[in-house]
Amino acid sequence: MPISLKNGFLLLLAVTFGVSCSAENQRANASVPQAPAALELKVPATFRFVAYGDARFHDPRDMQAANPAIRQALVAAIDKENPAFISIGGDIVYNGENAKDWQVWDAETAVWREHKIPVFPALGNHDLEGNLSRALGNYFDHFPGIENSRYYSVRTENTLMLVLDSSLDEIAGPQGEWLRSQLDRLPDSTDFVFLVCHHPPYTSSTGHSIFREGHSARTSEQALAEALEERQQHTRARFVFFNGHVHNYERHEHGGITYFVTGGGGAHPYLVVRRPDDLYKDPGVNYHYLLAAVDHNRLTVTMHKISIENGKEIWSQPDLVTIIAPAAISAATH
Fold first, then answer.
1. Number of compact structural domains in the chain
2. Longest dimension (CA), the chain
3. N- or C-end of the chain: fewer Cβ atoms within 10 A?
4. According to the 3-state scheme, what is the secondary structure of 100-145?
5. Coil, strand or helix: which one is 3?
6. Per-residue pLDDT tens digits for 291-302
7. The CATH number of the domain where 197 resides is what?
8. What's the number of CA atoms in the CB half-sphere (13 Å) around residue 114?
């Protein structure tokens, strides 16, 4: 059953506060298979949301895992955008089993709860770090609105967001079957399908780079991208993919789908040698968040980049792309 939310605010109580069940029940049921949550967020016809990932909330004294000043500045800037919701593409914390990391999350993102901004997370590998049951228990304790779902959907106006768990098979098994069923029965009113998972199908990064750090694309996400690109050719809605894992920013276009790597939330940065198909060319550090504006059949995604020099925040917007839903493109040609 979808969860209907009036005025777009009730979800906050479910997603960011533990209101419906005890921590003990959450942990006991953390690995119990069940129907994925189907959420609905009421938003205006034109709305904005933020996508970013790899913040690694963690002891701010540990400067190796993440940059706490950057992480905190991003949280504050995102709050000022007053987005309809925030999509986090994984690695929310540094160690999912560590309750203290989640306490840092609670403290540093308190302003989002104060301003009733819903948060929709995807699981990253660091969120599953340590004892799996305890890590999932911590995760579900902090996001009870997703109903113990490791993957789930969120409907907002003319869009559908499908949040995947890339630690599970994305195109086979229960998650693959669920994904196909979601895409098979898209309402005609859907202009955009946002897919979110931690690991990217396309990246300039490689685990064997000259910088001795980074991550190559995995075959599982490459297979997912191939299936989606084939489907995109026969789907009126436009697919847009948001990923993290690589601690930088990238933008790729393949098969009619735009792929954003948005892993600049504060984790130790990865430098990458840009591939020819990477449409973003800055070779340096790119801490950032993405602000996505939906205006009927038009989506505009703006990268907001931050650096801190001599204690001063320096912001820029070095990348912007506008994506038009296929139906709108078809209508414009007739």
1. 1
2. 59
3. C
4. HHHHHHHHHCHHHHHCCCCEEECCCCHHHCCCHHHHHHHHHHHCHH
5. strand
6. 999 999 999 999
7. 3.60.21.10
8. 10
